[in-house]
Amino acid sequence: NAGVTQTPKFRILKIGQSMTLQCTQDMNHNYMYWYRQDPGMGLKLIYYSVGAGITDKGEVPNGYNVSRSTTEDFPLRLELAAPSQTSVYFCASINPGQAGELFFGEGSRLTVL
Amino acid sequence: AQTVTQSQPEMSVQEAETVTLSCTYDTSENNYYLFWYKQPPSRQMILVIRQEAYKQQNATENRFSVNFQKAAKSFSLKISDSQLGDTAMYFCAFGGSGTSYGKLTFGQGTILTVHP
Fold first, then answer.
1. pLDDT range class, residue B102, cuts 50, 70, 90
2. CA distance A83 to chain B (A)
3. A32-62 pLDDT tens trace
4. Average pLDDT, chain A
5. Which of A33, A101, A103 to mutate to test the interface with B (most CBs of B within 10 A)?
6. pLDDT score of A1 more than 70
């Protein structure tokens, strides 16, 4: 059982470039989330989805876009990368009936230079 | 909006001793969940313990226990018989109920170092 899988694990971008962080889960979870973790800080919610075709903004959505065409996949798109987006990104998923216990991916470290 | 505050940026403890990490939160909700997550250098997020706000009994998981004071909005983590593998960053987190499942608000974290 793979759980939540994120790719890539590491990436260096130049300012102004764009990229997509991939996230897929094989647990048939309805709810999925993207968090970012800046150095020495806690995680902050970027976007979330409660099902295919439904997405909504979290606390820090500026500079990002998401889509949810299938239950399994929840990619995060960075447009016009900026140094402020240097961070570790975590994807997570849950079934609501599991009462708030998230399954996290291993994280993707992104550096924008 | 909820806030979570961890007032101890760093803590250290000797192996086999007990340490308590502090967390306070603010919310207007009545039904919610509180969590402690461990993040070792591998950066993996590991759930340590979970507390449902409607339960008066404090949660316990082996060497880990919490002191949940709902009126005071306090949620501390006690680690007994500390082990070298407990060295990590620890995050306190608040989670709502219903459609707020998974929309966690995290504290700033406490770096715990266990010394041999």
1. confident
2. 21
3. 999 999 988 999 999 999 999 999 999 999 9
4. 93
5. A101
6. no
Residues A1-15, buried b or exposed e (16+ Cβ, 10 A)? eeebebeeeebebee
Looking at beta carbons, which residues of chain A come within 8 Å of B103? Answer: 33, 45, 48, 58
Closest residue to B95, CB basis, from A43, A93, A100:
A100
- Which helix (DSSP H) or strand (DSSP E) does residue B68 occupy? strand B64-69
Q: What is the DSSP string of chain A?
A: ---EEEE-SEEEE-TT--EEEEEEESS--SEEEEEEE-TTS-EEEEEEEEETTEEEE-S--TTEEE--SSSSB--EEE-S--GGG-EEEEEEEE-GGGTT-PEE---EEEEE-
Closest to B97 measured CA to CA, from B25, B27, B23: B27
